[in-house]
Amino acid sequence: MARPRADDYDAKYQAILDAAAVLFAEVGYPNAKMQNIAERCGATKSMLYHYFPTKDELLQAMLSEHLERLIQEIAQASGGPGTVEERFFRLVQAYVEKSAQSRQRHISAMNDVRFLPVDMQQPLRRLQKRSIEVVAALLAELNPTLPAELRKPYALMLLGLLNWTDLWYKPRGRIKPRELCARISRLFLNGFLDQRTAMPGLALVHEHSEFL
Question: For residue 42, what pLDDT is reported?
């Protein structure tokens, strides 16, 4: 008979993921040790291994949860009420106005997936692909004249712009989150809405690009 879960199992599970996200963002996945993660969340190393037998499994669980939540948020933003431009702004807002914990996970997602074994990367790559599809579908609504083969490259351009804000943007700085969202939206849309035809070589970009 399987041992029943403790009442605080979910809370401890999340505490471990939160501590790991902070540590991975600070020192990088290869330099982080399970002992360090245990110390960060006030747990013993043996207790940590009860939840995650390996550091790779911990990273995969953390990034799967993060990407699934991100997909849900951007799908809701891009598919809700309002004009397509309003929905585009909400999608940008969902990316920019992350909590500190989400930003830490996103930094890890950008940097650390490559350290996982290939078979553990594959589910994460599928989630990445799904997030690109959500963005590309909204861009198709914004500019129906754009050739279909260019939707993914432009989605990758936008996601590249949004992803890197996590590395430099400080929500308490001079540029407030809503202002930053507006500036990013205008910067991207002013160029994107003017695109009508294929540009030489651009359609090949997505063959060699990754979201994270």
Answer: 87
